[in-house]
Amino acid sequence: MSDQALETVSEISALRKLVASRRQQGATIGFVPTMGALHAGHTSLIEAADADCDFVVVSIYVNPTQFGPDEDFERYPRVLEQDLAKCAAAGANLVWTPDTSIMYPDGYSTDVTVKALSRILEGATRTNHFQGVTTIVTKLLLSCLPDIAYFGAKDFQQQAIIRRMCLDLNIPVEINTCPIIRDTDGLALSSRNAYLSAEEREAGLSLSRALRLAEEKVAAGETDIAQIKAAMQQLLNATPLLKLDYATIADPTTLEDISTVQSEMVALIAARVGTTRLIDNCQLAPAATEKT
Amino acid sequence: MSDQALETVSEISALRKLVASRRQQGATIGFVPTMGALHAGHTSLIEAADADCDFVVVSIYVNPTQFGPDEDFERYPRVLEQDLAKCAAAGANLVWTPDTSIMYPDGYSTDVTVKALSRILEGATRTNHFQGVTTIVTKLLLSCLPDIAYFGAKDFQQQAIIRRMCLDLNIPVEINTCPIIRDTDGLALSSRNAYLSAEEREAGLSLSRALRLAEEKVAAGETDIAQIKAAMQQLLNATPLLKLDYATIADPTTLEDISTVQSEMVALIAARVGTTRLIDNCQLAPAATEKT
């Protein structure tokens, strides 16, 4: 916990200087990379970092390379003043706000790609999305050089890919994945929920309902994975306004579909409601095993 | 300069522990990544690191992913005992010898790619070579976390790509490119020279002769780049046993061919002599400009 005033920097050199100075004083450095438009999901990550670490850096940067040409880069919410207030309240010490001239200077030419994991699930429809994510996250991590970086479980595939990438490239950081934060109606928090009309929001609740259904079935001893998937899909396909992309059960590390019950499993759903793409997930543990 | 005994490690955790301990004592860390089979070119890099830095790490690892399927990975020379003696004599403090189970563990899935620079020159014939190089160099740099890493100018395109990659990914290291070391007959040192017969070696001397010709023409005030290239190519094409791949003059940063004289230029040659591929280069400065 720290009660110092919130600082902000844009340049990487200024960020590094402040982080190095704190590290030299023995501080552990926590890092929460964000695209801004912060909600309670983000602030829970900042609070987790503040609980673990002496100095907490939050980055706010809407990374163009992870948006497809038909996606919402232009209209993605940008509310820096509100974000800074939320960072301060949640315990951040430093907010880093690079711009695109800093992150992708003239002549920029390098990609980081996590092959297998990036082509499935979200990657099957969002071409190049994860390459954009892995490249910017490498850059953010190597600019800040934190001890621990915090990601939300809501973007489950993203955190799995980032874990694989950090392991593969020997990026010297620990990855901490924090639980999904939900509104009282069950909708997983997302900056994109702001796009939903009241009817669309009601439709969006089917994602968390389908996940609860899967949890209940597994808790009740159901071991037929195909049956659990079919139940989720039936609930989702019966929802007006909702167009299901996938509802599946996978291994939490490889993200490969599974056909038989195993000790760790994750149920993953993606659907479009109107023009808004929603995702949600939950980890599942068979009845005999203690849930982690 | 240090006169401590040479240590060797294989595991990344052991490497990091030793480097972190020296850094904590205030040491600057120099790093020379190699594939072993060390010659005076490599030892000049170790000596340069020893002159600049308090603690010098040399890695020896023959990286399979930068060899093509028809290239010489299997027969690439592996002479660890000799290499260790040369490292000690040149001033190395620590030799890191990871193996493939450490560098590419089960499930490994990540590539680093520097797009434009990797497709031209060497990259035009050696598909995926530079992706293998940039991926392993990222891993080596992030495992060791040196202050300065040393590369030879003989692999000119490689050092240009690595500079671009470190800049693009914000890898916190300074890249130091050291001059080509040549045998007395002018042949640029390379571990692959061991493959050459006496006749092939004589043919290989045409590379450095062609570069000297280009230097002489530029020094004499020749400003017609096409004419200089043609002279190099004529000399090389007239050499028995030698099959020219390219002989060109390029911008040292972008590696794009140039057609008019500029203050910094590099002449680059690649040729096959028998089954051995040879490369060489030299920087050129027009007569009016002081050569850097």
TrEMBL record, chains A, B:
Pathway noted in the entry: Cofactor biosynthesis; (R)-pantothenate biosynthesis; (R)-pantothenate from (R)-pantoate and beta-alanine: step 1/1
Domain of life: Bacteria
Annotated positions binding ATP: 35-42, 152-155, 181, 189-192
CDD domains in the cross-refs: PanC
Cell location: Cytoplasm
Additional notes on this entry: The reaction proceeds by a bi uni uni bi ping pong mechanism.
Subunit structure of this chain's protein: Homodimer.
Family membership noted in the UniProt record: Belongs to the pantothenate synthetase family.
Function per UniProt: Catalyzes the condensation of pantoate with beta-alanine in an ATP-dependent reaction via a pantoyl-adenylate intermediate.
Name of the featured protein: Pantothenate synthetase
Taxonomic source organism: Gimesia maris
